[in-house]
Design goal:
This protein has about 260 residues and is an alpha/beta fold. The chain folds into two domains: about 160 residues, 3-Layer(aba) Sandwich (Alpha/beta knot), CATH 3.40.1280.10; about 70 residues, Helicase, Ruva Protein, domain 3 (Orthogonal Bundle), CATH 1.10.8. The chain is about 45% helix and about 10% strand. It is built from ten helices and seven strands. Strands 3-2-1-6-4-7-5 form a seven-stranded parallel beta sheet. It is elongated, with a radius of gyration of 22 Å.
Length: about 260
């Protein structure tokens, strides 16, 4: 059964990309590419240590989506995969105290819709390995978390999860009738990771963070700032504040040390 082509009338998700973290089966990557092509998603990034078998991917992608397989980004870390994106939706079936607040794909895509309306704002949909899903460390790069509701038993494969999320986002964007808004230059993951590095350094300087609690508190800070939807300018401002704070803190420490040890000057 073939869906009626409405490419001329319907929107294309040209600023959306799929991020597949550690997929176990090349066929699932091919199936994801086929789904991406159907919804006008132009990019797939795969996080893997070696290139998956291309023939097995192409078999499931079919010839129309073959270019997505041949042009896909292959990276070795989730951090690198996330860098180009301003907002990332992490998909997960697991719950936990340190995990992001979870919503259904439909609710999340309604939140994403106004962000996706700006062509320069890049949005990633991140999916984890078929057997384990995304880790807490993977979800640290995500500002949104989506869980597909199922009856008692959750056993959707990767391609099914990709299809549901792409459909919900496509439907949300197609149904939008909002007025055009001035473009906003949001901070992408590369900007945010640099900012979080300075925040970590500054908070460690005042002993708010230590080795025992650093990961826990920084994950909470990431989740808080992720909800703010920082612009590139705001992320740069926070980095500047942290750098200035560190400069003053270290200058004061040096001055106190010199006073205690005048003979060593």
């Amino acid at each position: 059964m073939h869906a009626k082509s409405t490419e001329a009338q319907e929107p294309r998700l040209a600023n959306i990309g799929l991020i597949l973290v550690g997929p176990r089966y090349p066929e699932n990557i091919g199936a994801a590419a086929r789904i991406a092509y159907n919804f006008g998603i132009p990019e797939i990034t795969v996080v893997a240590e070696k290139h998956p078998d291309q023939e097995r991917m192409l078999k499931m992608a079919t010839h129309k989506a073959a270019h997505l397989i041949k042009e896909m980004r292959l990276v070795i870390s989730t951090r690198e995969a996330a860098e180009p994106y301003h907002f990332i939706v992490g998909t997960t079936a697991r719950h936990g105290r340190q995990r992001l607040r979870q919503n259904t794909p439909r609710l999340i895509m309604e939140q994403i819709r106004p962000l996706a309306a700006t062509p320069s704002t890049r949005i990633g949909l991140m999916f984890g390995p078929e057997n384990t899903g995304l880790t807490n460390e993977d979800l640290d790069f995500c500002q949104f978390s989506s869980t597909i509701p199922t009856a008692d038993f959750s056993s959707l494969n990767l391609a099914q999860a990709v299809a549901i999320h792409c459909y919900e986002l496509y439907t949300a964007v197609a149904a939008a009738h909002t007025k055009a808004q001035a473009p906003v230059e949001y901070a992408n993951s590369f900007d945010l990771e640099g900012m979080y590095g300075h925040v970590t350094e500054a908070l460690s300087e005042v002993t708010f963070l230590d080795d025992a609690n650093q990961i826990y508190w920084m994950r909470s800070i990431r989740q808080f700032l992720g909800r703010v939807r920082l612009t590139k300018k705001e992320a740069s401002l926070i980095r500047g504040i942290c750098r200035k704070f560190l400069w003053h803190a270290r200058k004061t420490t040096k001055k106190n040390t010199d006073k205690k040890n005048p003979g060593q000057q």
